[in-house]
Design a protein that fits this description.
With about 425 residues, the chain is of the alpha/beta class. It contains 14 helices and 17 strands. The protein folds into two domains: about 140 residues, Aspartate Aminotransferase, domain 1; about 270 residues, Aspartate Aminotransferase, domain 2 (3-Layer(aba) Sandwich). Strand 3, helix 6 and strand 4 form a beta-alpha-beta unit.
């Protein structure tokens, strides 16, 4: 059982904004004092560059930085810390894959498969790669429940029309890019089953999993998922902005050319030739966000102390309560997007209220210190598919409780009354 009141004491922002109801953790999470202090510790006690100096400050910074790599590997059950690559964010991780092995592995006539619910970060890079090389860009649709209507083992879909995965994946499919959790619908996709089914058809397919909305909230095991790559961002899991993680299978990373060139990613340089370092340093050119990476380690420690199973249960209860209260209060005037079953979705809810634009809702809520997201949430193809221009999204984390949802409902009542009078 999560003690929300106690947890909020760990987050300085609530001391500075006592009335804040923060319901936008899917965009970025708040930061606990321990993470902030760890970043400050680096700058105040061992602010030096890594992997370069032989003096003790540099060695301490390098030790702390590489310590994060080990912690991240353990957190997602990666076989080796050498498979953990630090990027700026999940977006850069996907672009790194697309710009390296994507370019070398995909040719004219090949196929790249993704889904209509993807964040632009896991959609546009593959779309543009397909356009550039003349590959076929295939997009898996959603069903009426906001789920992927795929017929795969272990996935109990209630879709009226299931699609055989062999109708989508073929021997020509080189890339399968899929999000573990939709940042708009909250849908938890059966990624493990989809990847297993896809690899039975084409063992050479490369699977890329966007886990930005999953890693902060539930236990992830890359070996169990059976994927080839997985990406996520620090800032959505209580860590600093400007840090992301790309995990890739060692045997695949060995085949990949560097993403960028510069310092710390080379083994030797001569006038006639350059030899590059092995993974992960091959993909980390230049001075990285040292403080941010060190801060990520502290964020993981905080999450593990709370417990990922407890986090999942807490958010599940909040999601169920929010969906019930929204439906009970606004009845036929509200449309909630995504699975109706809270067991099949993560801790976020996107909705529309008849007659009130999401931007107007967000503005009214802000006047009452309630922070939500309004817009297309970087999923324009999905919103086009849903035939809506924008939605309001509320997302939950460990510092939220039922009182936040009650306050949200009260704010939404004010918003509907305000704009019903204007209309």
């Amino acid at each position: 059982m999560i003690d929300t009141k106690q947890i909020r004491k760990d987050f300085p922002i609530f001391k500075n904004h006592p009335s804040l109801t923060y319901l936008d953790s899917a965009a970025t999470s708040l930061k606990p004092k321990s993470v902030i202090s760890k970043i400050t510790e680096y700058y105040e006690h061992y602010s030096a560059n890594i992997h370069r100096g032989i003096y003790h400050l540099s060695e301490k910074a390098s030790e702390e930085y590489e310590g994060t790599r080990s912690v991240v590997a353990s957190y997602i059950n990666a076989p080796s810390q050498s498979e953990i690559i630090f990027t700026r964010n999940a977006t850069e991780g996907i672009n790194l894959i697309a710009s390296t092995i994507g370019v070398t592995n995909v040719s004219e006539g090949d196929e790249i498969v993704t889904t209509v619910m993807e964040h632009h970060a896991n959609f546009v890079p593959w779309q543009q790669l397909a356009f550039d090389v003349g590959a076929d860009f295939k997009v898996i649709d959603i069903d009426e429940n906001g789920s992927l209507p795929l017929k795969v083992s272990g996935h109990n879909s209630k879709s009226k029309t299931l699609v055989e995965i062999s109708d989508i994946i073929s021997k020509k499919t080189k890339i399968l890019a899929i999000g573990l959790v939709s940042n708009t619908l909250g849908t938890i996709n059966p990624v493990k089953a989809i990847i297993a089914a896809a690899k039975k058809i084409n063992p050479q397919i490369l699977s890329v999993v966007d886990a930005a909305q999953a890693v902060p909230h539930m236990k992830i095991d890359v070996q169990d998922l059976g994927c080839d790559f997985l990406v996520f961002s620090s800032h959505k899991m209580l860590g600093p902005t400007g840090v992301g993680v790309l995990w890739g299978r060692h045997e695949i990373l060995k085949q990949m050319p560097p993403y960028q060139y510069g310092g710390d990613m080379i083994r030797s340089v001569a006038l006639s030739d350059t030899t590059f370092a092995d993974s992960p340093h091959r993909f980390e050119a230049g001075t990285p966000n040292i403080a941010g990476v060190i801060g990520l380690k502290e964020a993981i420690a905080y999450l593990e102390n709370v417990g990922l199973e407890s986090i999942r249960k807490h958010e599940h209860a909040l999601t169920k309560y929010a969906m019930e209260k929204l439906t009970e209060t606004f009845k036929e005037c509200i449309t909630i997007f995504g699975p109706a079953d809270p067991d099949k979705r993560a801790g976020l809810v996107s909705f529309q209220i008849k007659g009130v634009h999401p931007h107007d809702i967000a503005q009214i809520l802000d006047e009452h210190d309630i922070a939500v997201r309004a817009g297309h949430h970087c999923t324009m193809p999905l919103h086009t598919r849903l035939d809506v221009a924008a939605t309001t999204r509320v997302s939950f984390y460990i510092y939220n409780d039922a009182q936040d949802i009650d306050k949200l409902i009260d704010g939404l009542k004010i918003a509907t009354k305000t704009f019903s009078k204007k209309s």
